Each structure stands twice: as structure tokens, then as C-alpha cells.
Amino acid sequence: MRTKILAWGLAAGLSFSGLSRAYADDVAATLELAVLHSQGLQRIALPIAKGDRTYQQLWDQKFAAIFDYCDIDRNGTLNQAEAARLPAAAALREATYSGFAPVIKSAPKWEDLGATEEGSITREQLAAYYRSHDVGPPMIGFGVAPFTNDLTAALLARLDADQDGMVSRDEWSKAEAVLDQLDQNDDQMIGAGELVAGVFYPGTSASYLLQVASEDRPALAEAMYAFPVSRLPQQPGNTAWSQRLQSQAGFPKSLREASPDQLWNVQLFVDDQTQSIVVEGVGEKGPQTELPCVKLGDTWLTVRSDPGQMAERLEGLRISSLEQFAESDEDLDGVLSQAEWSASGKGFGSAMVAMMDRDGDQQLTKAELEGWLTLQGEIASGLVMVTIVDCGNGVLELLDTDRNGALSRRELRQAVARLEAVGCVQGDTVDLKRLPRQLLFTISIGPPDSVLGKIQRRGPDWFLSMDRNQDGDVSEAEFVGGAEAFQSLDANGDKLITFEEVENLKVD
């Protein structure tokens, strides 16, 4: 990540019981977060596993692959020359975002690796070095949606039919009519850009890096304390965070002596063909959201999983590297000479070649390139990223139950019910001060494809193909079978065909 801002963190060092196996086996390495809300603090643990292997064990495997790659003489230790080929800790941290460990920074200093008296380092020493330099924990990106208030104001202005400066319950009940006024692209939805020209939702890529405050990091800007999610350090001795939270309800006992309040189990499914990620334990879907949601006082945490871009980025690296090799191999002998690999505009560069050139002959063979690419695949495989967007206390965020950044007909129809459910409606008056703060969590392998929601819809093929905007309903405008056929399928006559209305339909 090119732009990084530190945010405050908390500390753990706790005892736990009765939790998931992955968490119990990997407490020291489990990602833990704390959420500040109106009623105090809530601690969330995210144990990550691939099958029966914990996330720490996955990183042990990566450290072993790096060690084996650099152990040129295969004697089970690294000498100083071999250690000079090690990737920098910063490169391994960057791998979650880049899809590989880029050749950046210098190799670890020999004196920092803890070499033995014989002048070598072991696998265990290498792993310990990387872990002491923050290699291994999942990356967390965060950001704040900048247009929440603008979108709310634009929607309210459209709903305020009598122009009295307030939107009454009766005006809210007619919210669906706004769709026909604003739907410029005829997708049967109101997007952020149709409410406020030029706006893309959520307006942030959440590319700031959420890190743990520690004694060796400078004081953080006060503005960063406004972000409601904090990362807990894995080192029990880290207490740089304590002054920030001593006045909060539930601190320190609920954080230092109890089990986590929430346990979200993250399971990875990664092989040569596919990759996916499943998050369990977040909470049930309900009438207020189509995605799992945890409600903490006035703060709602909506959680979604995303396959991420890691496989695509790895494949892109392989293709571009092999193409670059072929273009540089001017004499077509399958080996890049120093003149070829250093050629201006198409060479690999001396730092990269130094890492790939296993025999140190200043030439690069295709086998050496393939070996480096295999290592990158091992490093990047299954790297988890958590992306958190603070969407604020907006109207669009409350109504947008599938969190795709747009409002469908059904979501607009249900506006009053959703406002009533959060206590905003008193008689004919609607008080938006009760709107919850919405945090959207996306857990992915590498950077997410999107920080917005995308529901996997159900239904027969014809239903899914007609549901062009993927909102889960087929409207009259989307239906291509004629008015009579539509009415026969629309069992409740609400002018929207749902999956439930056609799931048992037999088609000849």
C-alpha cells in the first residue's frame, strides 16, 4: 500500500476456554479487533484456518519455503551469502496487497537474524525474525465513506414533497416513486451517482493500513482516534494503547480477563483451480439486512466474504514475467545474459535478478524464473485481508440491505419499516438522529474484488437472467414474458416476482 496511516490499537495476552479449535490452538497469532460504540467496547476474535491448519501454521509453511529457496547448498542452514537473498520483511507484508513479495528494501541484516556461533541461521531463527517484524498477521485496510451526508441530504430533498424541510412518515411511505424520477440508466435502482452527480460509492478504497500502536511508533494524529475499530497487538507486553481506553465502559476487565465477545471463524478454501473464503459465527441475516450483521448499540457491523484478487494477481505476475523473459531473450537461447536482463525498458533489474539467480553466474535461466514464481505462489497463497469501511449514519446505508451501494424498489418500499425498527419514527415524525453507524467488513483472500455487497442470488436460470440488476426480484420492466404471464407469477400482486414465488414452478 502506498498510503498508510497508523490507527490506535489495544492489547491482549488473555486466557480463553470453550472457543473454536483454531482459536484455542493459535491464540497468540489470532487476529483480534475491538470496536468502540456508544455502550462501550466489544472485542472480536477472527481465528483463520485452512482445513486443520491455523493461520500461523500457514505462515510457518511460507517461512519454510523461503528458507528452502535460499538454502542453495541444501545443508539445512543459511550462511551469510544465502541470507542476502532473503526478502525483506516489508516485502512479505506487502504480498497480501500485491499478490507477491516485491523486491523492495534490503534483505534482513545478518546481525539481526541471530546467527549461531557457526555463522549460520536456522529455520526457527528465520521465522522468529520475520514474526518479530510484523510478518504473519492479516492485513487490515480501513477508510471512511466521504459522501454519506451528501447522499442523505440528496435523498431527503427528493422525498420532501411539500418542501417544508422535513420528510414525514407519509412522504417516506412514497419513497418508491423517487426511483422513477432518478433512475437514469434504467436499471431499476437508484445509485449514488444518480443521487449526487459524480459520486462513486462508497468513495473510499479503504487503503489506509490499520496497525497497532506501540512504544516504538510515534504518537498518532488525534483524528485517527475517531475510527471506531482497533487492532489488538499479539504481544502481551504492548501497553501503548492503554491510556486511550481507560475511560471506556468495560475496560480493562472485559478485555484483559474475559473471552472475546464475538468469535468469527474464517475458513480458507484454496487450491490450484479455485479460492474462496467463508466466515461463520457473525450472526443471522434478518429483515434489516441481507448479510450477516452484528448490532452493538448504535453501531452495526455488516460482514461479507469475498474471494479476492489474489489468484488473478498471481496469474498476472506469471504471465507478465514469462512474457518479459521471452521479450528480453534476444538470442532465443532460453537464458538471459546480463546484457539482456539489464536492457533498458524491458530488463528485470539487478536486485530482482540477484534474488532469482541461484547459481550466481549473473545469468537468468527460465528454470530460475520459474522457481522464483513458484515461491511467490507459495508466499501469496491464502493471505487474508480485512477491509473495513465506516459508512457513517446515513439513510442510504440503513435502507441498502444488500450493501451494494444502491437502492432497489423493494428497499425503498420497506423504508418506513426499517426506520421504525431503529426507532426513528414517532407518529408522523421521522427523527434521523437515531440512525445507526454502519461499518462494512469485507474479509477476502488478497484485496477484495469489491468492498460492496454482492448477494449470491437463488432461482431458476430464467429468473436469474431476467433479474438484470441482481436485486433478488424480477420487476415488470425486467420481465420479458408479457403482462399476463407476469401477473400469473406475481402471487401477491406487488409487481415484483420473488424467488419464493417461482421456486416450485414447473416449466415444461
Structure notes:
By secondary structure, the chain is α+β, with helices and mostly antiparallel strands. It is built from 21 helices and 22 strands. The strands form seven sheets. The protein has a six-stranded mixed β-sheet, covered by helices on one side. Helix 2 crosses helix 5, helix 2 runs antiparallel to helix 15 and helix 12 packs antiparallel against helix 15. The protein is elongated and about 80 Å long. 41% of the residues are buried. The N terminus is likely disordered.
Brief account:
The chain has 21 helices and 22 strands. With 508 residues, it is an alpha+beta fold. The relative contact order is 0.16.
Task: Give short descriptive properties of this protein.
single chain, 508 residues, alpha+beta, six-stranded mixed β-sheet, 19% strand
> How many beta strands in the DSSP annotation?
22
Distance between the termini: 54 Å
Percent in strands = 15-25%
| Strand line-up in the sheet with most strands | 7-5-16-20-13-12
Report the sheet with the most strands, covering strand number, pairing sense and barrel closure: 6 strands, mixed
User: Which segments are poorly predicted (pLDDT under 50) over 5 or more consecutive residues?
Assistant: 1-24
* Backbone CA Rg: 27 Å
Helix content: 25-40%
Note the total helix count: 21
